[in-house]
Each structure stands twice: as structure tokens, then as C-alpha cells.
């Protein structure tokens, strides 16, 4: 007789043993395809620091799929009463549904809070049948949405390979666009620049020199470099810039202490120093294949320093580590001129109400076409030499 498959809901990561979670795809540095954002260390830090909790509108509702009492799959998931901190915008859907008399909130959000980075969402225990377990997780997510009376479930920034399981479970496909640096075997930054047109190469070299004028130097801090004093300085940058950009920064000071304690080797701070003190910095997370840029802040304004700290230094670090790409966060066509290329991102949406589902499906069909057209247009305006543009996502060159 086959073992029974059940779904259990965990309200926080304190209810999930780190060793059990580490058996799932992408969650452990010891396994393939490591993504730091789905590690127990990162997600539990969101909980314990008070950054993503019920009081901030992120109530843990993590799906644990068990067979015969053992964990075979999971979905990091939150019950939400707003649409903030997600980077895949559904405010228009919420407004339309509520004007029609419906209640869009609460909704389920299968994502990493405040983190617009692609990574596994249907987490499957290594050694299990991926197609089977992924399908069960997608169905479970839809069924839980119906059972708790939520309007919808949203799986954001998922790998394209997870999409079929979700569309088979009646989820709708949505696309968006980011800009990533793709490492095509460059020995160093100069080798990458050599692939650019002469004028673009000249402009970027000039930009990098200008960023370091006024006696500015750059430090890479990781591992044991990440002391509490360093976190105090970086948090000051985050609060200063975040308050102006978002109104209320999402992350608490304790979050940084927790990731420094639990995953310091997966964190890179790029810090800019002038006159003996740090004046700006950017935080990045290091996966097995990619460097993920998250946010930056500063207490002094200097021309081009943002581009140097967030984009050029990230490329330098990725090349030094042999990483295949840099994902520098959401939006930002200004990244294109700095060698970052348009890449399509994916999300999946389960809409419980048939009328709202029809309206959203129609909207997404038009939006996908617009995203594809924009990607094609931007892909023709990269800084690479004409006739030598590398293949974009989904392309191959003959020969």
C-alpha cells in the first residue's frame, strides 16, 4: 500500500528543522544549484528579525508536502493583506476586483520576501521524482488557496522549468524583464570590455575612473569581514536611501546580524571608502552559479559611484569567482549600457474567481506580447559590437 501524501502548513521557519529543509533542491551549499534566498538561514532570518512576519503583512503559510511522514517537497509561502515588497505588481487586479465587490486580500504569495531574484519555488527533495512532486506541490497550492478562501496564489520569480507543473494546475503565466550580466568565459573585466563597441568601451572606462575620483577606494567584505560594526555602517546606508526610495525600509537591523551569523560566506558587501570611512555600499548574495545584487545605500553623493558599486564591481567579483551571471535586481534599463542584457522573468498566478481569472488571462496575453517585443528591441541595443552580439535567452547562432 502506498504511503499517504499530506500537506502540512508551517507558520514560520522555526517550525521547520534546518536539516530537513536542506534536503530540498537549491537550499543547501552542499547541493547543486544553490540559491541563498531559499536557504533556511535566509528565510528564517526574515522571520526571526521581524522583517517578514504577520505584523508587516507577511504571515508565514509555508506548504510542506509529506509522504509517509517524511518531507518530500515544500513551497515557501505567505498569506498577505497587501501587495508590497513583491516586485510583480498586481495592484490593478486588486483594485478592479474590489471595485466589483470582491475581496482580493488575503492572497497567498509563494516567493522570497523583498527579493526579485529568480530561484526555485517548488522545492523537491533530492532523489525524488521532480515532475511528480512538483505537480503535487502545484495542486496543493491551488487547493490550499480554495480551502482558506484566498482570492489567489502567486508564484513569483520562478525558473521556467517549474512553469508546466503550475499551468497544469490552472495557474496563469506572466512575464516581466530584468537585466543580467552573462559571463561567457571572460578572463576578467577587460576581456568583457573587449566585446563591446569602441565607444561604449571608452565610455565605461571613463565612468569607472570618474567614480573613484575624490580619493574613493572599494573593498569587498565577506565572511569574517562582516562584523557588527560593518553591519551598523551598512544599515545606516540602507535606512538613509531606503527611507527616500520606499518611505519605509523593509528590513530590520537584526536581519543583517542574523545573516552575518548564519550565512556570512554567502554575502558580499561592496563598500566605498573616502577619507578613512565608508560612504556607500551594496549588498550581494553569492549562489553556486550567480551573484545576486540586492540593494545599496550611501551617505555621500558622488558621480557614477552607484554604477561602480552595484554593477561594475559585481561583474569583477563574478568573474573572479567563475560565476555564470550577475542578477542585479528589478528594472533598470540603465544597466543595458553597462553590459547587462535583457532577460525574461516568469511568474504564475492562480485566480480562484472565474470572472477575475478571465480578465487577468486576457490582460496577461497582451502583456506577454509587449514584454517580448520590448525584449527584442532592447536586445538589439546592447553595447556589444555589431555583428558580434552574443545570443540572448532562447537563441542560438548557426554554426
List SSEs in N-to-C order.
EHHEEEEHEEHEHEHHEHHEEEHEEH
Distance from N terminus to C terminus (CA atoms, Å) equals 53 Å
Q: Write down the overall geometry.
A: globular
> For the report, how would you describe the main beta sheet?
11 strands, mixed
**What structural class should be given to the helix and strand makeup?**
alpha+beta
Indicate the mean pLDDT.
93
Computed CA radius of gyration, to the nearest angstrom: 22 Å
Q: Spans of 5+ residues with little confidence (pLDDT < 50)?
A: 392-399
Percent of residues in helices:
25-40%
Give the strand tally: 15
List the strand order in the largest sheet: 2-5-6-8-15-9-14-13-12-11-10
Strand portion: 15-25%
What's the helix count? 11
Note down, in words, how this protein is organized.
- Strand 11 and strand 12 form a beta hairpin.
- The radius of gyration is 22 Å and the shape is globular.
- The C terminus is likely disordered.
- It is an alpha+beta fold and 399 residues long.
- The N and C termini lie far apart (53 Å).
- It is 35% helix and 24% strand.
- Helix 2 runs antiparallel to helix 9, helix 7 packs across helix 10 and helix 8 crosses helix 9.
Ordered list of secondary-structure elements with their pairings:
Layout: E1 5-10, H1 18-21, H2 40-48, E2 58-60, E3 62-67, E4 70-75, E5 78-80, H3 91-99, E6 107-110, E7 123-124, H4 130-148, E8 152-156, H5 163-168, E9 172-182, H6 189-193, H7 198-211, E10 217-221, H8 228-246, H9 253-262, E11 267-274, E12 277-286, E13 290-298, H10 305-321, E14 325-330, E15 341-351, H11 354-379
Parallel strand pairs: 6-8, 13-14
Antiparallel strand pairs: 1-3, 2-5, 3-4, 4-7, 5-6, 8-15, 9-14, 9-15, 10-11, 11-12, 12-13
